[in-house]
Amino acid sequence: MNASPRGFTGSHMLLAISAFFTVVIAVNVTMAFYASSSWSGLVVENTYVASQEFNGKAAAMKAMAASGVEGALSVNSREIRYDIHNGNGAPAIIDEVTLKFKRPVGDHEDFHLTLRKTGEGRFEADHEVAVGDWIVEAISRRNGAVIMHEAKRIDTAEFGQ
Fold it and tell me: What's the DSSP call for residue 159?
């Protein structure tokens, strides 16, 4: 009796299909883990409410831009400074400035500060800011009313950190 070679059998096909789908599932689980751990995915709490408020916010931003008020942010080591001035270059009369530092991806390092007034149009704070990209939202108020609301993307490496 001569034994003949068996060739590609049904069990070989089962192993090939199982190996293929095991790899596909492992890759999907890995990608899902990294996606969910690196970004919250949250842009707005309620999209319907945000859409209803959009026109009012857009009009307010146009009015702020037309006012000529501008802010300048600087981050040096632990010193954060925000200077705000009118369109003619004079310091703006502002009572309070708050800054919200947000990472473009992830929210575990985000923080916000209320700066102390050190002079007319000049506000400062001492806080460690990690090196890298940040989105900084600045809100300036006088008598409780928002005078300037802006957001800037910065790289703290550009400030010499």
Answer: G
Q: Which fold has domain 68-159?
A: Immunoglobulin-like (2.60.40)
N-terminal to C-terminal alpha carbon distance within the chain? 82
Half-sphere exposure of 132 (CA within 13 A, CB side): 11
> H/E element holding 112?
strand 111-119
Nearest CA among 122, 113, 68 for reference residue 95: 122
Q: In what order do the strands lie in the sheet with 133-142?
A: 70-76, 79-85, 122-126, 111-119, 96-102, 133-142, 145-155
Count of alpha carbons within 13 Å of 110, Cβ hemisphere only?
A: 13
Predicted TM-score (pTM) of the model is 0.65
The pLDDT tens digits of the residues spanning 42-73 come to 677 788 888 888 888 888 888 888 888 889 99
Distance CA 91, CA 72 (A): 11
Where in the chain are the domains?
Answer: 9-38, 68-159
Coil, strand, or helix at residue 99?
Answer: strand
- Bridge partner residues of 5 (DSSP): none
54: Cα within 13 Å, side-chain hemisphere: 8
Torsion of CA 136, 142, 143, 145, to 10 degrees: -60
